[in-house]
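Please go through the sequence and fold tokens given here and tell me how the chain folds. Record follows.
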Amino acid sequence: MNSKDAHTKNLSVPTIADDEVNLSELFFVIWEGKWVVILITALFTIASVFYALEQPNVYKSEALLAAAEQEQSGGLGALAGQFGGLASLAGVNLGSSGTANKTQLALEVLKSRQFTFNFIEKHNVLPDLMAVKSWRQVDNSIEYDEEIYNEKEKKWLREVNAPFKPEPSMQEAYEEFSQLITADMNKENGMITISIEHISPVIAQRWVNWLIQDINTVMKSRDVEEANKSTEFLTKQLEQTKVADIRTVLYKLIEEQTKTIMFANVRDEYVFKTIDPALVPEKKFKPGRALICIFGFLLGGFLGVVIVVSKYFLKNEK
């Protein structure tokens, strides 16, 4: 081997070694910059502790419900099998939705914008929804953010840009309310859970109860209104036909619509029957302050290591 080849071989060895990641060297680099890692980790940990302590407690109140049996639907189902053909000649639809369909419809209505708008306006919960700062357990009172809402003057003070106004719109309220409410049905057993998260456990429990009452009232009103319209239509059809069999069907249908109205008027729990009512929760639902602090510690340590290692390799590349 001549001197030129030997010189070339000597140059190639360190080049390969420089490209390899040596774990011991990496550990040495981290150890040399341990104070930087410790400092950054400490800063992130302290910041996460302060952040966790600043977060207000949020309480969750929930109620377990069951679908109320729609007793009036059985009569229509029997009529559909017995007089379906004759009823179709008169332009009358005997099909009826079952309990499951009505329950699902009620859940969708509960989550709808219109229902939420009406709920907020009826119970005047906009300040408790959009301006609450904290809740005092001692006297069960609410402290509002003074930069957003003046409780004494009942005046909104928040500063926003157009098209928004100091008083939150119903669309803004709906977006906020949607983050607080949960309404789901268990597909296995058909049980329904309605829950509300709020800084005040009392307000959370109160809203759950109001929601159950309001959705039962709304669904009851919808069915009564539909039954009244159906009865009016069937009565007109009855006056116009002379066929005995069709008149029998119409009489039966009017009877079923009357049962629907009676059933609705005598039953408060029209769609949802309360199995386990909402309670004022004693324990907070969130935040998980310990998890926030642990995450801050890990994030600080990771960023500290990245900064030390990156600084070392950037320095060696120059």
